[in-house]
Amino acid sequence: MNMLLHGVKYNDFDIQNGDTLEADAFGDRQFDAVVANPPFSADWSAAAKFNNDDRFSKAGVLAPKSKADYAFILHMIYHLNDGGTMACVAPHGVLFRGSAEGKIRQFLIEKRNYIDAIIGLPANIFYGTSIPTCIIVIKKCRKEGDNVLFIDASKEFEKVKTQNKLRPEHIQKIIDTYRERKEIEKYSHLATMQEIIDNDYNLNIPRYVDTFEEEAPIDIHAVMGEIKELEAKRADLDKQIEVYLKELGIVE
């Protein structure tokens, strides 16, 4: 339905109804582009048979049974051709969770060098969930093999009622930054492989893009002056209240 609403004719797509992890409907087919927004941290069987499945076996470990995020990512990579590009929306947990997911992340970076960019999106831009998400961009044949681009676009949005919305200018900034692989203070950083190794293959965006805004210094003398002024006003009010109470005969 979503494709029809966006003008894609039914004879231009092939929709398969089923569990894509348990029963791969695409066989050995590969594609120039893979774009997906799989269910976040869904359950899957993680059955022992998948240790011999070409989609997952090369990573040496299966995605956790309670978090299928990397199962979907590895499935999509398997169907991406050598010159293709893949973009997957995922929860931020895939960037830093350890154990099996940490090993898969290390495999994709160290052994395959597939991860091209990590793009952090604003929270609350998807209906049904308010959690912040990211886009993982993957290429099998990367030209910039010695770095990964990190973009923190989490603060670039417009508030529309209860949802946050990316405006065209926000999207264009992300696209331009990615295409030019440029560094923008507090927005993007081109991290070397050594930086990523030093961070133990943790791809959490704040480790690479510093968005900290330094607070203005506090003038203690000015604050003390304001406090004294407020205390003087309060003393005057206390006197006025006392006068009113005496006039009313409440106090002597």
Summarize the structure.
With 252 residues, the protein is α/β, with parallel strands linked by helices. The protein has seven helices and eight strands.
Report on the architecture of this protein.
By secondary structure, the protein is α/β, with parallel strands linked by helices. The protein has two domains: 2-207, Vaccinia Virus protein VP39 (Rossmann fold, 3-Layer(aba) Sandwich), CATH 3.40.50.150; 215-252. The protein has seven helices and eight strands. The chain has a six-stranded mixed beta sheet. A two-stranded antiparallel ribbon has the order 6-7. The longest helix has 28 residues, at 220-247. The protein starts with a helix and ends in a 5-residue tail after the last helix.
Topology:
Layout: H1 2-5, E1 31-36, H2 69-78, E2 80-91, H3 93-96, H4 99-111, E3 115-120, E4 133-139, E5 147-152, E6 158-160, E7 163-165, H5 168-180, E8 188-192, H6 193-198, H7 220-247
Parallel strand pairs: 1-2, 3-5
Antiparallel strand pairs: 2-4, 3-4, 5-8, 6-7
Task: Kindly estimate the percentage of residues that lie in beta strands according to DSSP.
Answer: 15-25%
Low-confidence stretches: none
Question: Remind me, CATH topology of the largest domain?
Answer: Rossmann fold
Total beta-strand segments: 8
Helical/strand content category? alpha/beta
The total count of helices amounts to: 7
* H/E topology pattern: HEHEHHEEEEEHEHH
Overall mean confidence score, pLDDT: 92
Specify Rg, calculated over alpha carbons. Answer: 27 Å
CA distance, first residue to last residue: 81 Å
The share of residues in helices is: 25-40%
The largest pleated sheet is described as: 6 strands, mixed
Number of domains: 2
